[in-house]
Amino acid sequence: MSFTRADSLKCRADFPALARTLNGVPLAYLDGPAGTQVPRRVIDTISGAYAHYNANTHGQFPTSNDVDRVMESTREVIAAFLGVASGASISLGANMTTLNYALSHAIERTLKPGDEVLVTQLDHEANRAPWMRLKAAGVNVPEIRLNPNGRLDEADMRAKVGPKTRLVAMGYSSNALGTVNDVELARELTRAVGAWLLVDAVHYAPHFPMDISTLDPDFLLCSGYKFYGPHVGVLYTRPGLLETLPTDRLPAQEPIAPYRIETGTLNHPAMEGVAAAVEYLASWGVGRSLRERIVDAMTGISAYEHALAAHYYAEVAKIPGVKVWGTDFSSRRRAPTVSITLEGVTPFAMATELGLEGVCVWDGDFYALRPIELLGLAAQGGVLRTGVSMYSQESDIERLLSGLSRIAGRRLGTAA
Ligand SMILES: Cc1ncc(COP(=O)(O)O)c(C=O)c1O
Fold first, then answer.
1. Distance (Å, rounded) from C-alpha 37 to C-alpha 16?
2. Rounded to two decimals, what is the model's pTM?
3. Which residue's C-alpha comes closest to atom 8 of ligand 1?
4. In the structure, which protein residues have their CB atom closer than 6 angstroms to any atom of ligand 1?
5. How is residue 155 annotated by DSSP?
6. Residues 158-186: what's their mean pLDDT?
7. Which of 228, 211, 202 is nearest to 299 (CA)?
8. CA pair distance 139, 141, nearest whole angstrom
9. Of 4, 74, 80, 273, whose CB count within 10 A is highest?
10. pLDDT at residue number 416
């Protein structure tokens, strides 16, 4: 396993944004779940595309030929990141939400009243709202229950996947609580009833090696800006499936995968930037093939991030008045994202005070509306969320902990 604690410190030099300071102190970027910083390699790739081959696809001249070549190789690199054989199963778009809506429009046309699409109570709205919408067409959209411990209720999932189920739309990992869901069980259950499985891997992809060929979902989505790339959505569709779906598309548009769901002109330089982000990640791994290097690097990054987040999880819980939400770190199947609340202080007030010190953490619901509502946290403004990325340091966590201890201490002082 290649990526170590020393590498985490070393990699910081590759991210220009990490040099930004506030009052002479570097910013502590603990906001990765909402988007990571990008390495120089990604920035250079995108600006290089504009400098050398800014053209549309399928022209008969050199710059357009370059874009065609780059787009195909971009799909291959993303396929290697996800662990699938061919770039032909990789469609690209503006972001995950837009691609998921496009997919829901296509899938809606294959459904009839009384069919069921299952969503979860833990998912981000981007993987709920596009499916909830189908209720208007007479489709039932039951929710897999969330337990107060931050895990989906397995018995409820088993009970709800049935003969009427056409699709289960489930997150791989929660962007609010860091839970990793049992998508393998969802695959087993959906396969048994002939339903499709759609996995939202937006929060999972930056933190774990992905192996789609083993999981074998019908659809999987992720988003480049969460794993050190630009804002681009990625949709994997099981080979042969996209061609059967009545997608929204112009008559002139290619009817085959992966193009069938890609409307309009794409952001080619940004898409090449996603491939550059994957290649950057791979540069921290060893192996003969790109895939081997990606898996090696992501295995190391995953272990590093897990240890740092576990440290934060344990330490923050010791601060008087703090409640930590979500499962503990005893399992490796836990994303390095930790949400807390502090009695008597809103997440907004905490995030504002920490932000003034250059500690970047998010407050709110992060569009994970349903879990925040069910945990009873909506009225107080959600939670304070900390995300660990490959470049996060123990010193970032120490700054956060000392800021939180001060805020908590002041609260107790005031109360006394
Ligand atoms: C788990 C999860 N799913 C989906 C999304 C939506 O992704 P995008 O911004 O690419 O539409 C996000 C964004 O925060 C997310 O965290």
1. 8
2. 0.98
3. 96
4. 95-97, 124, 126-127, 171, 175, 200, 202-203, 223, 233
5. H
6. 98
7. 211
8. 6
9. 273
10. 39
